[in-house]
Amino acid sequence: MSRLVTRLIVAAVAVAVAVPAFADVTLLNVSYDVMRDFYKDYNPAFQKHYQDKFKEKATIQMSHGASSKQARSVIDGLEADVVTMNQHNDIDAIADKAKLLPPDWAKRLPDNSAPFTSLQVLIVKKGNPKGIKDWNDLARPGVQVIFPNPKTSGNGRYTFLAAWGYALRQPGGNEQKAADFEASILKNVPVLEAGGRGATTTFMQRGIGDVLVTFENEAEMIAREFGRGNFDVVYPSVSIEAEPPVALVDKVVDKKGTRKAAQEYLSWLWSPEAQDIAAQNYLRPRDKAVFAKHASQFPNVKLFGINDFGGWQAAQAKYFADGGVYDKIAASVAKR
Protein backbone atom coordinates (compact mmCIF):
# COMPACT_ATOMS: atom_id res chain seq x y z
CA MET A 1 0.00 0.00 0.00
CA SER A 2 1.47 3.32 -0.98
CA ARG A 3 2.10 6.04 1.57
CA LEU A 4 -0.46 8.26 -0.23
CA VAL A 5 -3.23 5.64 0.00
CA THR A 6 -2.45 5.08 3.67
CA ARG A 7 -2.75 8.81 4.36
CA LEU A 8 -6.11 8.93 2.52
CA ILE A 9 -7.50 6.03 4.58
CA VAL A 10 -6.33 7.62 7.83
CA ALA A 11 -7.88 10.93 6.78
CA ALA A 12 -11.17 9.25 5.86
CA VAL A 13 -11.34 7.50 9.23
CA ALA A 14 -10.58 10.77 11.00
CA VAL A 15 -13.39 12.53 9.12
CA ALA A 16 -15.81 9.71 9.94
CA VAL A 17 -14.98 10.00 13.63
CA ALA A 18 -15.20 13.81 13.58
CA VAL A 19 -18.70 13.94 12.03
CA PRO A 20 -21.28 13.86 14.87
CA ALA A 21 -23.63 10.92 14.51
CA PHE A 22 -27.37 11.39 15.07
CA ALA A 23 -28.05 9.62 18.37
CA ASP A 24 -31.24 7.62 18.77
CA VAL A 25 -33.06 7.35 22.04
CA THR A 26 -36.00 5.17 23.02
CA LEU A 27 -38.35 6.12 25.83
CA LEU A 28 -40.98 3.95 27.49
CA ASN A 29 -44.03 5.87 28.67
CA VAL A 30 -46.09 3.79 31.10
CA SER A 31 -49.54 5.35 31.09
CA TYR A 32 -53.19 4.62 31.78
CA ASP A 33 -55.93 3.35 29.52
CA VAL A 34 -57.77 6.51 28.63
CA MET A 35 -54.67 8.38 27.39
CA ARG A 36 -54.10 6.17 24.35
CA ASP A 37 -55.58 8.70 21.94
CA PHE A 38 -53.79 11.73 23.35
CA TYR A 39 -50.35 10.13 23.17
CA LYS A 40 -51.12 8.75 19.71
CA ASP A 41 -51.27 12.40 18.62
CA TYR A 42 -48.65 13.83 21.00
CA ASN A 43 -45.81 11.40 20.31
CA PRO A 44 -45.31 12.17 16.57
CA ALA A 45 -45.46 15.93 17.30
CA PHE A 46 -42.88 15.54 20.08
CA GLN A 47 -40.61 13.41 17.88
CA LYS A 48 -40.58 16.16 15.24
CA HIS A 49 -39.88 18.80 17.90
CA TYR A 50 -37.06 16.70 19.36
CA GLN A 51 -35.51 16.06 15.95
CA ASP A 52 -35.65 19.78 15.10
CA LYS A 53 -34.20 20.88 18.44
CA PHE A 54 -31.52 18.26 19.09
CA LYS A 55 -30.99 16.68 15.65
CA GLU A 56 -31.64 13.34 17.30
CA LYS A 57 -34.32 10.73 16.77
CA ALA A 58 -36.59 9.79 19.65
CA THR A 59 -38.67 6.62 19.60
CA ILE A 60 -41.58 6.46 22.03
CA GLN A 61 -42.90 3.13 23.27
CA MET A 62 -46.23 3.08 25.11
CA SER A 63 -47.69 0.79 27.75
CA HIS A 64 -51.34 1.28 28.75
CA GLY A 65 -53.54 -0.24 31.44
CA ALA A 66 -55.43 0.65 34.59
CA SER A 67 -53.48 3.42 36.33
CA SER A 68 -52.81 1.68 39.62
CA LYS A 69 -51.98 -1.62 37.92
CA GLN A 70 -49.49 0.23 35.73
CA ALA A 71 -47.89 1.78 38.81
CA ARG A 72 -47.65 -1.70 40.33
CA SER A 73 -45.88 -2.94 37.17
CA VAL A 74 -43.28 -0.16 37.47
CA ILE A 75 -42.76 -0.98 41.14
CA ASP A 76 -42.28 -4.63 40.14
CA GLY A 77 -39.60 -3.81 37.57
CA LEU A 78 -41.14 -2.45 34.33
CA GLU A 79 -38.45 0.07 33.28
CA ALA A 80 -40.48 3.19 32.50
CA ASP A 81 -38.52 6.30 31.57
CA VAL A 82 -41.62 8.36 32.31
CA VAL A 83 -44.94 7.60 33.97
CA THR A 84 -48.13 9.45 33.04
CA MET A 85 -50.88 8.42 35.44
CA ASN A 86 -54.33 9.73 36.27
CA GLN A 87 -53.69 10.48 39.93
CA HIS A 88 -50.75 11.51 42.09
CA ASN A 89 -51.19 8.60 44.43
CA ASP A 90 -49.98 6.10 41.84
CA ILE A 91 -46.70 7.96 41.33
CA ASP A 92 -46.36 8.45 45.09
CA ALA A 93 -46.53 4.66 45.38
CA ILE A 94 -43.63 4.29 42.92
CA ALA A 95 -41.61 6.79 44.97
CA ASP A 96 -42.51 5.22 48.31
CA LYS A 97 -42.27 1.52 47.54
CA ALA A 98 -39.61 1.32 44.81
CA LYS A 99 -37.62 4.51 45.55
CA LEU A 100 -37.30 5.14 41.80
CA LEU A 101 -37.90 8.89 42.10
CA PRO A 102 -37.84 11.41 44.97
CA PRO A 103 -40.88 11.96 47.21
CA ASP A 104 -41.19 15.60 46.03
CA TRP A 105 -41.38 14.61 42.33
CA ALA A 106 -44.57 16.65 41.81
CA LYS A 107 -42.73 19.93 42.47
CA ARG A 108 -40.38 19.48 39.51
CA LEU A 109 -42.88 20.59 36.85
CA PRO A 110 -45.55 23.34 36.77
CA ASP A 111 -49.10 22.86 38.04
CA ASN A 112 -48.09 20.16 40.50
CA SER A 113 -46.83 18.16 37.47
CA ALA A 114 -50.32 17.91 35.90
CA PRO A 115 -50.20 19.48 32.39
CA PHE A 116 -53.98 19.45 31.88
CA THR A 117 -57.18 18.54 33.70
CA SER A 118 -60.37 16.62 33.13
CA LEU A 119 -63.53 15.79 35.09
CA GLN A 120 -66.02 12.98 35.51
CA VAL A 121 -69.02 13.06 33.17
CA LEU A 122 -71.98 10.76 32.53
CA ILE A 123 -72.27 9.06 29.14
CA VAL A 124 -75.72 7.74 28.26
CA LYS A 125 -77.33 6.05 25.29
CA LYS A 126 -78.58 8.26 22.45
CA GLY A 127 -81.69 10.15 23.51
CA ASN A 128 -80.98 9.45 27.20
CA PRO A 129 -83.88 6.95 27.56
CA LYS A 130 -83.49 6.74 31.38
CA GLY A 131 -83.57 10.54 31.76
CA ILE A 132 -80.24 10.69 33.60
CA LYS A 133 -79.32 14.27 34.50
CA ASP A 134 -77.21 14.17 37.67
CA TRP A 135 -75.49 11.92 40.22
CA ASN A 136 -78.73 11.22 42.11
CA ASP A 137 -80.10 9.45 39.01
CA LEU A 138 -77.35 6.83 39.34
CA ALA A 139 -78.92 5.66 42.61
CA ARG A 140 -82.42 5.19 41.16
CA PRO A 141 -83.81 1.64 41.04
CA GLY A 142 -83.62 0.20 37.54
CA VAL A 143 -80.60 2.23 36.39
CA GLN A 144 -77.47 0.21 35.62
CA VAL A 145 -74.20 2.09 36.19
CA ILE A 146 -70.81 1.26 34.66
CA PHE A 147 -67.48 2.51 36.01
CA PRO A 148 -64.13 0.83 36.81
CA ASN A 149 -63.16 -0.66 40.15
CA PRO A 150 -61.90 2.04 42.57
CA LYS A 151 -59.48 -0.51 44.02
CA THR A 152 -57.56 -0.85 40.74
CA SER A 153 -58.38 2.27 38.75
CA GLY A 154 -57.88 5.98 39.32
CA ASN A 155 -60.88 6.53 37.04
CA GLY A 156 -62.95 4.50 39.51
CA ARG A 157 -61.58 6.46 42.48
CA TYR A 158 -62.43 9.79 40.84
CA THR A 159 -65.96 8.46 40.21
CA PHE A 160 -66.39 7.35 43.82
CA LEU A 161 -65.15 10.70 45.16
CA ALA A 162 -67.26 12.70 42.70
CA ALA A 163 -70.42 10.93 43.89
CA TRP A 164 -69.34 11.32 47.54
CA GLY A 165 -68.69 15.03 47.09
CA TYR A 166 -72.07 15.47 45.39
CA ALA A 167 -73.84 13.75 48.30
CA LEU A 168 -72.07 15.92 50.89
CA ARG A 169 -73.20 19.05 49.07
CA GLN A 170 -76.91 18.15 49.18
CA PRO A 171 -79.15 19.73 51.86
CA GLY A 172 -78.45 17.93 55.14
CA GLY A 173 -75.53 16.10 53.56
CA ASN A 174 -73.12 14.26 55.86
CA GLU A 175 -70.73 11.30 55.70
CA GLN A 176 -73.34 8.69 56.63
CA LYS A 177 -75.71 9.94 53.92
CA ALA A 178 -72.80 9.97 51.47
CA ALA A 179 -72.00 6.34 52.36
CA ASP A 180 -75.67 5.36 51.91
CA PHE A 181 -75.70 7.15 48.56
CA GLU A 182 -72.58 5.30 47.41
CA ALA A 183 -74.18 2.00 48.47
CA SER A 184 -77.26 2.79 46.38
CA ILE A 185 -75.06 3.42 43.33
CA LEU A 186 -72.90 0.33 43.89
CA LYS A 187 -76.07 -1.76 44.07
CA ASN A 188 -76.76 -0.65 40.47
CA VAL A 189 -73.34 -1.72 39.14
CA PRO A 190 -73.60 -5.05 37.26
CA VAL A 191 -69.85 -5.42 36.65
CA LEU A 192 -66.70 -3.61 37.84
CA GLU A 193 -63.98 -3.58 35.19
CA ALA A 194 -60.33 -3.19 36.20
CA GLY A 195 -59.76 -0.03 34.14
CA GLY A 196 -61.47 2.81 32.31
CA ARG A 197 -61.07 1.37 28.83
CA GLY A 198 -62.57 -1.95 29.95
CA ALA A 199 -65.57 -0.08 31.36
CA THR A 200 -65.99 1.75 28.06
CA THR A 201 -65.89 -1.54 26.15
CA THR A 202 -68.50 -3.03 28.49
CA PHE A 203 -70.84 -0.09 27.93
CA MET A 204 -70.29 0.64 24.25
CA GLN A 205 -69.53 -2.77 22.74
CA ARG A 206 -71.22 -5.23 25.10
CA GLY A 207 -74.24 -2.95 25.55
CA ILE A 208 -74.31 -3.38 29.32
CA GLY A 209 -75.54 -0.50 31.47
CA ASP A 210 -77.57 2.70 31.13
CA VAL A 211 -74.81 5.15 32.04
CA LEU A 212 -71.00 5.09 31.90
CA VAL A 213 -69.08 7.33 34.30
CA THR A 214 -65.67 8.31 32.97
CA PHE A 215 -63.35 11.18 32.14
CA GLU A 216 -64.57 13.96 29.85
CA ASN A 217 -61.80 13.22 27.34
CA GLU A 218 -62.89 9.56 27.12
CA ALA A 219 -66.15 10.82 25.59
CA GLU A 220 -64.15 12.17 22.63
CA MET A 221 -62.45 8.80 22.17
CA ILE A 222 -65.86 7.13 22.17
CA ALA A 223 -67.07 9.60 19.55
CA ARG A 224 -64.09 8.84 17.31
CA GLU A 225 -64.36 5.08 17.70
CA PHE A 226 -68.10 4.50 17.89
CA GLY A 227 -69.55 7.54 16.12
CA ARG A 228 -70.83 10.82 17.49
CA GLY A 229 -74.51 9.95 17.05
CA ASN A 230 -74.55 6.88 19.27
CA PHE A 231 -74.49 8.44 22.74
CA ASP A 232 -75.04 11.65 24.70
CA VAL A 233 -72.72 13.28 27.24
CA VAL A 234 -74.41 14.54 30.41
CA TYR A 235 -72.55 17.10 32.52
CA PRO A 236 -73.62 16.72 36.18
CA SER A 237 -74.33 19.74 38.38
CA VAL A 238 -71.01 19.27 40.16
CA SER A 239 -67.96 17.07 39.57
CA ILE A 240 -64.42 16.45 40.70
CA GLU A 241 -61.46 17.96 38.86
CA ALA A 242 -59.07 15.26 37.67
CA GLU A 243 -55.40 16.28 37.49
CA PRO A 244 -53.41 13.55 35.68
CA PRO A 245 -49.75 13.90 36.71
CA VAL A 246 -46.54 13.05 34.86
CA ALA A 247 -43.09 12.20 36.22
CA LEU A 248 -39.61 11.20 35.13
CA VAL A 249 -38.37 7.95 36.70
CA ASP A 250 -34.90 8.97 37.85
CA LYS A 251 -33.26 5.63 38.48
CA VAL A 252 -34.38 4.28 35.09
CA VAL A 253 -33.33 7.29 32.98
CA ASP A 254 -29.95 7.46 34.73
CA LYS A 255 -29.41 3.75 34.12
CA LYS A 256 -30.41 4.03 30.44
CA GLY A 257 -28.88 7.45 29.78
CA THR A 258 -32.21 8.89 28.65
CA ARG A 259 -32.65 11.75 31.13
CA LYS A 260 -32.35 14.58 28.57
CA ALA A 261 -34.95 13.10 26.24
CA ALA A 262 -37.30 12.14 29.08
CA GLN A 263 -37.16 15.62 30.58
CA GLU A 264 -37.87 17.19 27.20
CA TYR A 265 -40.73 14.73 26.60
CA LEU A 266 -42.46 15.84 29.78
CA SER A 267 -41.67 19.56 29.78
CA TRP A 268 -42.91 19.92 26.17
CA LEU A 269 -46.38 18.92 27.40
CA TRP A 270 -46.74 22.55 28.57
CA SER A 271 -45.85 23.99 25.14
CA PRO A 272 -48.67 25.72 23.22
CA GLU A 273 -48.46 23.02 20.53
CA ALA A 274 -48.90 20.20 23.03
CA GLN A 275 -51.59 22.07 24.92
CA ASP A 276 -53.51 22.42 21.66
CA ILE A 277 -53.20 18.67 21.05
CA ALA A 278 -54.56 18.14 24.57
CA ALA A 279 -57.54 20.39 23.86
CA GLN A 280 -58.22 18.53 20.61
CA ASN A 281 -58.45 15.38 22.74
CA TYR A 282 -60.84 17.10 25.17
CA LEU A 283 -58.28 17.46 27.92
CA ARG A 284 -58.63 20.90 29.51
CA PRO A 285 -55.35 22.75 28.81
CA ARG A 286 -53.49 24.81 31.43
CA ASP A 287 -52.45 27.39 28.81
CA LYS A 288 -55.08 30.13 29.10
CA ALA A 289 -54.81 31.20 25.46
CA VAL A 290 -55.23 27.63 24.22
CA PHE A 291 -58.13 27.09 26.61
CA ALA A 292 -59.81 30.26 25.33
CA LYS A 293 -59.42 29.03 21.76
CA HIS A 294 -61.29 25.80 22.62
CA ALA A 295 -63.56 27.15 25.38
CA SER A 296 -66.78 26.33 23.52
CA GLN A 297 -66.11 22.58 23.85
CA PHE A 298 -65.65 22.73 27.63
CA PRO A 299 -68.94 23.43 29.47
CA ASN A 300 -68.60 25.30 32.73
CA VAL A 301 -69.11 22.84 35.60
CA LYS A 302 -68.87 23.53 39.31
CA LEU A 303 -65.83 21.56 40.50
CA PHE A 304 -64.27 20.44 43.73
CA GLY A 305 -60.82 18.88 43.97
CA ILE A 306 -58.84 16.18 45.72
CA ASN A 307 -57.70 18.76 48.30
CA ASP A 308 -61.31 18.78 49.57
CA PHE A 309 -60.53 15.21 50.70
CA GLY A 310 -57.17 16.14 52.27
CA GLY A 311 -55.09 15.21 49.22
CA TRP A 312 -54.55 11.85 47.53
CA GLN A 313 -52.63 10.20 50.33
CA ALA A 314 -55.34 11.00 52.88
CA ALA A 315 -58.10 9.99 50.45
CA GLN A 316 -56.36 6.72 49.66
CA ALA A 317 -55.94 5.86 53.33
CA LYS A 318 -59.53 6.72 54.28
CA TYR A 319 -61.52 5.50 51.29
CA PHE A 320 -59.53 2.97 49.24
CA ALA A 321 -57.05 1.20 51.53
CA ASP A 322 -57.91 -2.37 52.52
CA GLY A 323 -60.70 -2.17 55.09
CA GLY A 324 -61.44 1.46 54.18
CA VAL A 325 -64.73 3.18 53.42
CA TYR A 326 -65.10 1.68 49.94
CA ASP A 327 -64.46 -1.87 51.18
CA LYS A 328 -67.05 -1.48 53.95
CA ILE A 329 -69.68 -0.13 51.53
CA ALA A 330 -68.94 -2.86 48.97
CA ALA A 331 -69.20 -5.54 51.68
CA SER A 332 -72.56 -4.17 52.86
CA VAL A 333 -73.91 -4.18 49.31
CA ALA A 334 -72.72 -7.76 48.76
CA LYS A 335 -74.72 -8.93 51.81
CA ARG A 336 -78.00 -7.49 50.52
UniProtKB/TrEMBL annotation:
Sequence intervals crossing the membrane: none
SUPFAM superfamilies: Periplasmic binding protein-like II (SSF53850)
Predominant location category: periplasm
Assigned keywords, A-Z: Periplasm, Signal, Transport
Keyword Nucleotide-binding recorded: no
InterPro entries for this protein: Thiosulph/SO4-bd
PANTHER family: SULFATE-BINDING PROTEIN (PTHR30368:SF2)
Name of the protein in question: Sulfate ABC transporter substrate-binding protein
Organism: Silvimonas iriomotensis
Name of the gene this protein is made from: cysP
